[in-house]
Design a protein that fits this description.
Number of domains: 2
Strand order of the largest sheet: 2-3-1-4
Number of strands: 4
Largest sheet: 4 strands, antiparallel
Distance between the termini: 61 Å
Order of helices and strands: HHHHHEHHEEHEH
Number of helices: 9
Helix content: over 70%
């Protein structure tokens, strides 16, 4: 079940990763497309400006011709602008607008400009009174106005595209933000799960104390102990007897009672773990011989207090301890080994004392 759930989480993570990559790709494409559209919009604005200049400058040229003030430079200026608008050439860096309506209006305007130039030549020859220059200039003005309007319409189309791209980009970024939030929540959930699994992996299910794996990890530290530290090894006596005579549930209760005794008496800052079936270990940090002896004394007093309330499952234990400041350099493992050796001696002493008491009683 856990394996299937893990595979499902991995699949979901992969799907989110693929969607995120696609959204990033789409966002990049949208940004590139927006930059192109903005570039076209800037070019369109320049076209609208110069198309408007043509409209006004042509009226000025007609007025100058009517007043017999020829201006060949203005005529050439208008030719260059119209050529730039149609063919994207000339000196004005004008872009060609790929809009059908605009191109049609511009062609009609350019063609009529050629007719208007012919009429201007006629004005120069026979005078404006004998030509249709005024009426033609009005017609040309309307044509130029329609061309400018077509360019503005095209510009508005580009602006609409840019606004659409902005909305799509904002939506894309919103989706990315949501995915990032989802990924963050999934990562937090996974971290909590991993922490829970790690806690379970290093916690004894019966007593709630760190289990043998946790003890082994602590003992795996090969650094020499620099601060005064003590290791105490405990062995719970009579567990087999309780199991055999009262059942394993009673034995489990005895183990639990002893674990609670150790954890309640030994300071919270110090380590207490279940090393094996009936073996427990404690590591007392930043301590002294006096403090260790006081802890052991408190354990004994608390044990006696509990035993006075219990008729059948009496707590009894052997212990051995070693202090890092006594004779030599130690790691946690070597210090525990020394404590274990003392605990074994203490256990043998307790057995001999028990046998002696039985003989005397007999």
């Amino acid at each position: 079940m856990l394996n299937l759930k893990g595979q499902s989480d991995k699949k979901s993570k992969n799907i989110i990763g693929i969607i995120q990559s696609c959204l990033i790709l789409v966002l990049v494409i949208l940004i590139i497309f927006m930059m192109i559209q903005i570039s076209w919009l800037q070019g369109t604005a320049r076209v609208i400006n110069y198309a408007g200049l043509v409209r006004g400058a042509t009226q000025r040229e007609v007025k100058l011709e009517i007043t017999e003030n020829r201006n060949e430079e203005l005529m050439k200026y208008l030719d260059d602008i119209l050529s730039g608008l149609r063919y994207q050439d000339g000196h004005y860096e004008l872009v060609k607008l790929y809009d059908k309506e605009y191109q049609e209006k511009l062609k009609i305007q350019s063609d009529y400009w050629e007719k208007l130039k012919t009429e201007i030549e006629a004005v120069r020859s026979v005078g404006y009174e004998n030509t249709d220059i005024v009426n033609m200039s009005e017609i040309y003005f309307k044509m130029a106005d329609e061309t400018v309007f077509a360019a503005e319409k095209y510009s508005e189309k580009i602006a609409t595209k840019i606004r659409t791209i902005e909305i799509l980009s904002a939506f894309d970024m919103l989706c990315l933000v949501i995915l990032v939030i989802v990924q963050t929540l999934m990562a937090m959930k996974m971290a909590v799960k991993n922490k829970l699994l790690e806690h379970r992996a290093y916690t004894d299910a019966h007593t709630g104390l760190p289990n043998k794996s946790a003890c082994k990890e602590l003992l795996g530290n090969k650094e020499i102990i620099s601060e005064p530290t003590a290791c105490i090894m405990f062995d719970l006596n009579n567990l087999k007897t309780v199991n055999d005579t009262m059942g394993h549930s009673a034995g489990d209760q005895l183990i639990l009672n002893f674990a609670r005794l150790l954890r309640n008496v030994i300071p919270e800052k110090d380590f207490v773990g279940r090393y094996g079936g009936d073996e427990f270990m404690a590591v007392i940090y930043h301590t002294s011989q006096t403090e260790v002896e006081e802890i052991l004394k408190c354990l004994c007093l608390e044990k006696d207090r509990l035993n006075n309330r219990e008729d059948k499952m009496l707590i009894d234990y052997a212990y051995g301890w070693a202090l890092s400041t006594n004779n030599g350099e130690y790691t946690i493992q070597t210090l525990l080994d020394k404590a274990d050796s003392y605990m074994y001696e203490n256990k043998q002493l307790c057995k001999r004392h028990s046998l002696t008491s039985e003989v005397e009683s007999f």
